[in-house]
Structure formats: structure tokens, C-alpha cells
Amino acid sequence: IEKKQAAAAIFRQASTWREIRGIQMSGTISPVSVGIEALRVVRAYLRKFPFTEEFFDQGQELDMEAFAKRFRVRLYRFEPTLMYYLDNSVRFSFREKVPL
Questions:
Q1: What is the DSSP string of 4-71?
Q2: pLDDT computed for residue 24 by the predictor
Q3: pLDDT tier for residue 38 given thresholds of 50, 70 and 90
Q4: CA-to-CA distance for 29 and 50, rounded, in angstroms?
Q5: Cut 0.90: pTM above it
Q6: Residue 91 carries which DSSP code?
Q7: Of 24, 21, 96, 35, which is closest to residue 63 (Cα–Cα)?
Q8: How far apart are CA 9 and CA 19, in angstroms?
Q9: Residue 1 confidence (pLDDT)
């Protein structure tokens, strides 16, 4: 499985610059492989978004293939290699490396 470089930033809604807090990450991204890993990912997704079960028939097996076919998506795994915590309430542009 080929891993590609990726980056992500996660912040909550803020009204002023002082309220900005979040994380910045860089790392690798790769497709979730079929099998046990895929089953764990689909189950975790359904726990987080239980309403999505409504899109499947009663008793239908909810595996990666059924999930991908129904939503026309592929799921990927992001593995951070570098992460920073940002918190402007400390000071403007405060950033601290998070040990992984």
C-alpha cells in the first residue's frame, strides 16, 4: 500500500483571534485495506454517525464493500508524524509541538 503525504488542521469556530485553538498535523495517508481493519473502521464510523445505518437494508452486512458502494467513497487512514497544538489565548501564534 502506497502512502502519500498529507496535512490537516482542526480548529473550532472562533469569533476573535484570541479564541483560536486547534491542532496542525502532517503525516501520511493510505487507503484502509479490506479485512479486519476495514471492519473496525466501518464499525467506528457507524458508532460516530449511527443515523447512517438507515441507508442500509435491515440485516445487510455492513462491511467495507457495502459501505463504499452505498456512499461511493473510499476510506483512508491518516497517520500523523508531526503535530502542533495552537492556542492564541496564550499569545498570538502560540504553537507547541505535541509528542507522538
A1: EEEEEEEE---SSGGG-EEEEEEEEEEEPPTTHHHHHHHHHHHHHSGGGGGGS-TT----HHHHHHHH
A2: 97
A3: confident
A4: 25
A5: no
A6: S
A7: 35
A8: 15
A9: 67
Going by pLDDT thresholds of 50, 70 and 90, the confidence category of residue 9 is: very high
CB-based contact 74:68 (threshold 8 Å): yes
What cell numbers appear for 73 in the block? 467513497
First-to-last alpha carbon distance for the chain, in angstroms, is: 23
CB 40 within 8 A of CB 62: no
User: Would you tell me the crossing angle of helices 64-71 and 36-48 to the nearest 10 degrees?
Assistant: 50
